[in-house]
Specification:
Chain A contains 10 helices and 6 strands; from the N terminus they run βαβαβαβαβαβααααα. By secondary structure, chain A is of the alpha/beta class. Chain A folds into 2 domains: 3-138, 3-Layer(aba) Sandwich (Rossmann fold); 143-212, Winged helix-like DNA-binding domain superfamily/Winged helix DNA-binding domain (Arc Repressor Mutant, subunit A), CATH 1.10.10. At the A-B interface, α3, α4, β6, α6 and α10 of A face α4, α5, β6, α6 and α7 of B. Chain A binds a DNA duplex (30 and 30 nucleotides) through α7 and α9.
Chain lengths: 216, 216
Amino acid sequence: MNVKIAIVDDNSFLIHAIKEKLSFFDDITVKYTALNGSELLQQLEESHNLDLILMDIEMPVLNGIETTQFVKQKYPQIKIIMLTAFDNDENIFNAIKAGADGYLLKEIDPELLHNGIRETLNGGAAMNPSIALKTLKLLRNPNSIENERDKEEISLSKREIEVLEQLSKGLSYTVIADNLFLSPSTVRKHIENIYKKLQVHSKIEAVQKARNHNLI
Amino acid sequence: MNVKIAIVDDNSFLIHAIKEKLSFFDDITVKYTALNGSELLQQLEESHNLDLILMDIEMPVLNGIETTQFVKQKYPQIKIIMLTAFDNDENIFNAIKAGADGYLLKEIDPELLHNGIRETLNGGAAMNPSIALKTLKLLRNPNSIENERDKEEISLSKREIEVLEQLSKGLSYTVIADNLFLSPSTVRKHIENIYKKLQVHSKIEAVQKARNHNLI
DNA sequence: CACACAATAGGGCAGATGACGTATTGGATA
DNA sequence: TATCCAATACGTCATCTGCCCTATTGTGTG
């Protein structure tokens, strides 16, 4: 089976180097290349018939972490392997949080890169041994992550939090209304307001976002 | 440089099989073998001039997790790779907590095992791609470690998992269909089947349950 | 060779949901 | 005091969702 991939890197020379590495393998086709995240997103708008993205992290306009978040939100079926020169803990953790399926270093051998791509498409995860070690350390010591606090202040009212909690249990409007001794109309209105505040458009997104911000 | 390793497994036949696999590589010497943890600890008492241990998990007397804890406590310089047939989340997480430097499955190719040993001694971590993926999921969703027991009964197909992943992003049927190049009818059918298997009745419940069981 | 089952696809229907309106009340705050 | 806003409530409408039905194709297993 032929694999369609994209390469995103702000250094066009490096894009070329990666293409070169992959040129040995005829089961991989580089369908897109982009110099930053928003360029990639534009291309995906036109056609998202793509299997995997090799993504740099440090890029202008839209960096690799942000881009990964966007792509995974909209096209979760597309696998993403971070391919970067840096391997500091923060990048790794943020990339994982953003939904990356692997994390490799640019100096990687062509064969290992090829293996990593295949393994990732096969439902595994590609990782440098040094990166793997860092993820193990992060798992052992979860406290080392809790540093980054939320920047944007989301303030939901007490009632809205209550509604959100009920929502998170998978209850319907009418049941929530019944539970909180409210009219269904009121519950709907609360949920409308919650959506506006969280800037989401569905129950699932609301619950997800609320969880990520420790609101519930 | 010659590497001195130990193999700990309650199945002497499997010890032999691993030795066989490693016999191709003349930079590795199997110094000890043991049928359980305490046997290994005794041997280490006499001489702990050892680089790395390949450790089974399920063993009588002293299991692999406990043994790893002991060894890492007393001889932190000795690397330990879990080498086991099972890869359930609880084992992985406990092994990591105990201080394991890698986690491989017994069916691994000789070359990859050799690589894993070398990488680990080189300051990295050895991991199967499937294990790597599990560690990533654990990092993303740390509360999903408890509920492993009742997972046996839940078996979703690969396609169903894909659909669930899309669901979890809050996408609608039509968008999911578009992303996976399926008809909306098919997506609906998949979701129907998922609901039956998970015994739930809404998107949120499905995503919740899937998360708790580390299916996504 | 059956048989089971995953993956695909479509039809139909009742009820739920999301997004828009409007409106009243009471408490907080400028 | 005047204004803001949370909390309450209702109406409408297009769309989505959950649940029922049937059906074909391919793969794998006993």
